Amino acid sequence: MQLRSKIILLGIVPLLVCLALLAAAVRHQALALADRQHTIVQRETLRARRDELKHYLELAVSALQAVTAEHEPDGRQRALQLLQSMNYGEDGYFFAYDLQGTVLAHSRQPELVGRNLWDLRDPQGRAPIQMLIARAKAGGGFVEYEWKKPSSLQMTPKLGYVVVLQPWNWMVGTGLYLDDVKATIQQLDRDAYRNISGTMWWIAAVAASGVLLIGMAGLLLNLSEHRVSDGKLRLLARQVVQSQEDERARLSRELHDGVSQSLVSTKLFVESALSALDRRSADVEPVLGKALGRLNGSLNEVRRISHRLRPALLDTLGLPAALQHLAQEFEDAGPMAVRVAIEGPAHELPEEVKTVLFRVAQESLTNIVKHAQAAKAELGLLFVEGAGVRLRVSDDGLGFDTEAVQRDPRRGIGLRNMRERLVAVGGTWQCESSAGFGTQILAEVPGPALKKLGLG
Description:
CATH architecture of the domain at 3-177: 2-Layer Sandwich
Oligomer: single chain
CATH topology of the domain at 3-177: Beta-Lactamase
Structural class: alpha+beta
Shape: rod-shaped
Mean pLDDT: 80
Distance between the termini: 30 Å
Strand content: 15-25%
Order of helices and strands: HHEEHEEEHHHHEHEEHHEEH
Strand order of the largest sheet: 2-1-5-4-3
Helix content: 55-70%
């Protein structure tokens, strides 16, 4: 996984975890609050309805007692008539039974008047009339049972309140159907859960927006990085091609100016010798000597060019000897003194490692000659037993701004080549430089990388 992908993932995962924890906490608290609200509303609603029923029945009993006192001879009949007419709401009414279970008054179901319902059972198997009479005899109170609702004609849970009316020993009561209460509470629950669900969706939307924004930012970053990388690659490709062309031009010049001229001169000497032989002249031997000298010069020139392409010492005597020879070449070519220091017990290195370290040293010395104006340079090769090999190239030249060179894709191709060569064999590369204090190149290939390549 690329570093940018890891950074984006590290931005998304904590966001999602935090939002998930927040959503879980909000949902838990909201559900707990909804449960408490359900309990409180149900308790308070039933308490209010109980008080309402008790108040209705107290008013009805007071009215019955007043009618009875006013119409003493036929008070019972007038009381029952009054009770039959005292309805409230859509399903509210009063009822009266004697203590043996016979219906005396029931305005919503007049067909029950005169019937004995002592043994009546509701769908739950309970005996509502027996429960109501028992509660009335016990001093009055509330009873829950199921009864047919007038508006729907369906068996519905009901809360009744009853008392015994003296002196006639009637059970008088009223009640309310609980399906309305339950419907109200269920509606409150649905509203609460709808709000909780809406909150969860908002949190999910925030999470999706955050992931989308981070993803878009990562995409823009990737596109920007890709554009910069593509530009650097195109520039690097052009520079590589240009370097190849420069190298070919240099080889062409060296072959033309050195080997070619020497071979032409040798050809002329040989032709002159052949001409002298034809004339049987005594000048043949000096001419052939000069031709032989030219051939030796051509051979040395070819060896020099071949050595610059890949020194034979690197394959025969190893990296330390190749570095010694390279340092001697640069010291002989100019005013800069080059010292080589080999430390530690030398051991065989993989071909790739030897080539990479030699090219790093060659490129570093070339850069020093071109840009540093240094008086001296030093090559340090350290063999660490079991821990790899380390190359250090330092000079006392002008130095440069490493950060500026790395930011500018048009500069530092040699430095990037060195770094890429080291990375390809599992090594590391560092460059330390400052104006007026020289430059130091550190190239290291650790032991594990050497073992992976097969040696060390």
